């Protein structure tokens, strides 16, 4: 029988319980491994401070290790009546090791417990996103090595403008992702502080060793102020999703480029059939659906960003249940970014260039700016050179 961590001997209305739990028990399945990791280190700290005996610590350790194994084999799931990963862990320990399991919550609250699990999850995901970005950059470099010297007519205002090369185009994405990596690094450094031991936002009224747990969990430092620990939850979620939105923004723009450049009437790029879907009514259609979804998912990230900052603003200091809704948005945003980075890496691996169509795009008007500068090199002022070529071009159009 599951027991609430806040159990006080009264029964909550079933509709209220279902409403407040929502999907949280399902969302926490993605966080429970981090919660277990933090629980083990927390128990070790309790032993160090004398709140657990060596024997009690060993019991808790074995119980948590068993739970980890059950999770990996798919034999454990958080039940709706557990509400969250924190309750599920404690109830499991009590069922496995008895009274000793009731001591695991000493010197912590569900508030700093979820903060810690989220921080560990975020740090892991940020590192993974960094690796995926570097993989995509390497793939784009390889594409540039193969097609970089191919010149084609670029566009402004969706009209032919000047010529460029695929090397210049590729490195526009690589450079953009370099900036995104810098932002990810800054985000990582900001969130890399342990909230464990701040309780419900007002500290713990017994002696604990926060630096011990921070170091054991791989944090660079502790988050000193307990009130700010809670206040930073929405702020850090906002910062993280903002950083992710910069990545999706860049991929959105380049997905649009690839879609546009692969339109048959333009045809600079060829998207292989294996990356396309089809039409249920038009037999000839090959649709760039993966790229369209990469483009669209940026807007999902932005909507998550807005929902996150709006949900967590205008709240007085301390924990509020509102934060529960942000958790899913942050996790979803990470999952989206991981997917679209993998998809874009695949696209650049398979993408081809039609050099004939690229060369054919270099019409007279596309080369007009070059002609202006040929005159400039001969000493003619830029404005006069510009007007001369413009006049010739306009006269040619009339003819």
Core attributes:
single chain, about 400 residues, mainly alpha, Fumarase C, Chain B, domain 1, Fumarase C, Chain A, domain 2, 3 domains, two-stranded antiparallel ribbon, two-stranded parallel ribbon, 14 helices
Write the layout of secondary structure elements.
Blueprint: H1 14-21, H2 24-27, H3 32-48, H4 54-72, H5 85-97, H6 110-147, E1 151-156, E2 159-165, H7 166-191, E3 193-194, H8 210-216, E4 221-222, H9 226-261, E5 269-270, H10 289-312, H11 323-350, E6 352-353, H12 355-360, H13 368-377, H14 382-398
Parallel strand pairs: 3-4
Antiparallel strand pairs: 1-2, 5-6
Give a written overview of the molecule.
The model has no long low-confidence stretch (mean pLDDT about 95). The termini are far apart. The longest helix is centred in the N-terminal third of the chain and has 38 residues, at about 110-145. The protein has 14 helices and 6 strands. About 65% of the residues lie in helices and about 5% in strands. A two-stranded antiparallel ribbon has the order 1-2. The protein has 3 domains: about 15-105, Fumarase C, Chain B, domain 1; about 120-200 and about 220-360, Up-down Bundle (Fumarase C, Chain A, domain 2); about 365-399, no CATH class. With about 400 residues, the protein is mainly alpha-helical.
CATH class term of the largest domain: Mainly Alpha
Distance between the termini: 88 Å
Major β-sheet profile: 2 strands, antiparallel
**What is the H/E order?**
HHHHHHEEHEHEHEHHEHHH
* Adjacency order of strands in the biggest sheet: 1-2
Rg over alpha carbons? 28 Å
Instruction: Give the proportion of residues in helices.
Output: 55-70%
Categorize the overall geometry: elongated
Assign the structural class, choosing from mainly alpha, mainly beta, alpha/beta, alpha+beta, or little secondary structure: mainly alpha
Number of domains: 3
How much strand? 5-15%
Look at the structure and give the mean pLDDT. Answer: 93
């Amino acid at each position: 029988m599951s027991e609430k961590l806040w159990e006080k001997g009264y029964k909550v209305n079933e509709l209220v319980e279902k409403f407040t739990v929502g999907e949280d028990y399902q969302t926490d399945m993605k966080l429970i491994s981090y919660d277990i990791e933090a629980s083990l280190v927390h128990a070790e700290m309790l032993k160090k401070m004398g709140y657990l005996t060596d024997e009690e610590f060993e019991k808790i350790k074995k119980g948590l290790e068993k739970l980890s194994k059950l999770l990996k084999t798919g034999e454990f799931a958080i039940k709706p009546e557990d509400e969250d990963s924190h309750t599920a862990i404690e109830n499991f320990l009590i069922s496995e090791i008895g009274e000793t399991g009731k001591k695991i919550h000493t010197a912590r609250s569900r508030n700093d417990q979820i903060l810690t699990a989220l921080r560990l999850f975020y740090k892991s995901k940020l590192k993974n996103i960094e690796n995926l970005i570097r993989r995509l950059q390497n793939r784009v470099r390889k594409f540039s090595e193969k097609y970089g010297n191919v010149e084609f007519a670029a566009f402004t205002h969706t009209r032919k403008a000047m010529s460029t090369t695929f090397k210049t185009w590729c490195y526009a994405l690589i450079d953009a992702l370099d900036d995104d990596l810098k932002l990810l690094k800054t985000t990582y450094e900001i969130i890399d502080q342990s909230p464990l031991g701040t309780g419900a936002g007002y500290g713990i009224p017994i002696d604990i060793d926060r630096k011990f747990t921070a170091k054991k969990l791989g944090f660079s430092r502790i988050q000193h102020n307990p009130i700010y620990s809670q206040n930073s939850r929405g702020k850090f979620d906002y910062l993280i999703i903002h950083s992710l939105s910069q990545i999706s923004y860049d991929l959105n723009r380049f997905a649009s480029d690839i879609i546009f450049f692969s339109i048959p009437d333009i045809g600079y790029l060829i998207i292989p059939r294996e990356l396309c879907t089809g039409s249920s009514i038009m037999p000839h259609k090959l649709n760039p659906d993966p790229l369209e979804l990469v483009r669209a998912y940026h807007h999902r990230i932005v909507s998550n960003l807005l929902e996150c900052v709006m949900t967590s603003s205008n709240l007085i200091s301390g924990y509020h249940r509102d934060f529960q809704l942000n958790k899913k948005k942050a996790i979803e945003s990470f999952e989206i970014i991981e997917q679209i980075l993998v998809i874009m890496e695949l696209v650049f691996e398979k993408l081809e260039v039609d050099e004939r169509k690229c060369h054919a795009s270099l019409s007279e008007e596309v080369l007009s700016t070059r002609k202006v500068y040929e005159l400039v090199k001969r000493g003619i002022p830029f404005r006069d050179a510009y007007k001369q070529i413009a006049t010739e071009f306009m006269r040619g159009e009339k003819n």
